[in-house]
Specification:
- The chain has 11 helices and 14 strands.
- By secondary structure, it is α/β, with parallel strands linked by helices.
- The strands form 3 sheets. Strands 4-5-7-6-8-9-10-11-13-14 form a 10-stranded mixed sheet, with helices on both faces. The chain has a two-stranded antiparallel sheet with strand order 1-2. A two-stranded antiparallel ribbon has the order 3-12.
- Strand 13 (about 400-405) and strand 14 (about 410-415) form a beta hairpin.
- Helix 1 (about 1-15) packs antiparallel against helix 4 (about 110-125), helix 7 packs across helix 8 (about 265-280) and helix 10 packs antiparallel against helix 11.
- The chain is globular, with a radius of gyration of 21 Å.
- The relative contact order is 0.11.
Length: about 425
């Protein structure tokens, strides 16, 4: 697997580098990995916090044996490719679209600074302790990195495995910690991913006044591999994370234990479906792309659950118009307040902020609009959120029906589809 990853890195580097110019000014002059500075959250009564980590600007020698380029050679390649950046047809590439949705894009492909960020992050994987066989780097997205206030923590699950977590402070740590008891969102990640890949989602809820707790499952991201005897049960680890947050974390005194929701994507969505059935501390859930009824095993539904997916959810590669039919049986098992939201042409990447993954341009907007409204209504009792839930987004799927059931009221949505060229 490591040999395959090295080859993937070599092929991906020149593809991305064509559009790179300049360096990220948020990184220090020595080219080391840095975190953006923010006004101290301690002034507002919170623990000390930092923003998300950006990759180093300078490529360094890799400790991994094999045919990887040296640091200087890689820098030379980046410089040469950057010189021809302006000669390439970015506008045409930005218009890459599929024939059905007319909006299926390689996210952010026209942003040279983001492409530069992505190359640096991929290169940093070679010596930053990453699990290279899990492909994705842990530097997230530059826009989301600078828009969160994070408190990094380490805690152990019930078997003794050390897990990495990040507490995302409400309002970027710029609101008084003692002003209220804060509602909580527990965030569960997908297979072979890490917390930074979902930072946009964490930021969404934190900016809305929630305290968010995300962590890496054992064997993923910055968490340790399972100790002997640890079965690596995601539902158990989610329960252990919640217990740590409520009982031992540095923000435990600021939490409202009566208003806790859970969100999850892919493998995290599967864990969300199982967790909502057995964890009485939860009051609402959003499961994004829970794969299928075979994977999403649960025997009861005591709390409101929203399921989100997209027309092209794979999960590994886009599968046109098939996935909603596979996920719908999961939704049909629900008995409490429930929702099934299908975004037009969105892929499995809809809920991540990992640069350059393909999905529809409006997918994240749909995911944000309905997931936040779901929690605002069921955790906060916000009547305006109910109106959002009962209003169709114009780019919901026109191939599959979306549905929202609250109490005895059912709303079914289906968009009219794109205006095809004449």
């Amino acid at each position: 697997m490591r040999s395959f990853s090295r080859l993937s890195w070599l092929f991906a580097l020149p593809f991305l580098a064509w559009a790179c110019t300049g360096e990220d000014s948020s990184l220090d002059s020595a080219g080391t990995s840095t975190r953006n500075s923010i006004q101290s959250s301690e002034a507002f009564g919170w623990p000390a916090s930092v923003q998300g980590e950006d990759p180093p600007t300078k490529l360094t020698e890799s400790p991994i044996e094999g045919p990887l380029p040296t640091a200087q050679a890689s820098e030379d390649v980046l410089f040469q490719l950057g010189m021809v950046s302006d000669m390439l047809p970015r506008q045409q590439l930005a218009g890459v679209a599929d024939p059905i949705a007319l909006g299926y894009t390689l996210s952010d492909i026209t942003d040279p600074a983001l492409l530069e960020f992505q190359i640096r992050a991929m290169a940093a994987q070679l010596n930053d302790g990453s699990r290279i066989n899990q492909v994705f780097h842990w530097y997230g997205h530059p826009e989301n990195n600078k828009s969160v206030a994070l408190v990094y923590v380490e805690f152990k699950n019930r078997y003794g495995t050390s897990l990495h977590g990040e507490i995302v402070l409400p309002k970027r740590g710029q609101t008084q910690a003692t002003a209220q008891k804060y509602p909580v969102i527990l965030a569960l990640e997908g297979l072979n991913t890490n917390t930074a890949m979902y930072r946009w989602w964490h930021q969404l809820f934190a900016d809305a006044g929630y305290l968010v707790f995300a962590f890496d499952f054992s064997g993923q991201g910055r968490s340790d591999d399972e100790v002997q005897g640890d079965p690596g049960n995601n539902i158990e680890e989610a329960q252990d994370a919640l217990s740590y947050l409520l009982n031992n974390s540095p923000v435990r005194q600021f939490i409202d234990p009566a208003r806790i929701g859970v969100i999850g994507h892919s493998m995290g969505a599967i864990a969300t479906m199982g967790l909502q059935a057995v964890e009485p501390r939860l009051k609402a859930a959003v499961a994004a792309a829970p794969i299928s009824e075979i994977q999403s095993v649960f025997d009861k539904n005591p709390i409101p659950v929203m399921i989100q997916t997209g027309d092209y959810d794979g999960p590994i590669a886009p599968i046109v118009a098939v996935n909603p039919a596979v996920v719908r049986p999961v939704y049909n098992k629900l008995t409490s307040d429930r929702a099934f939201i299908v975004a037009d042409a969105a892929t499995h990447a809809q809920h991540t902020n990992y640069p350059l993954l393909p999905t529809s341009t409006w997918g994240r907007e749909i995911a944000a609009q309905y997931s936040l409204a779901w929690m605002n209504y069921h955790l906060l009792g916000n009547s305006e959120a109910l109106k959002v839930l009962q209003t169709p987004h114009p780019r919901l799927s026109y191939l599959w029906a979306s549905e929202v059931v609250i109490g005895k009221t059912t709303h079914v949505f289906k968009s009219v589809g794109p205006a095809l060229p004449k």
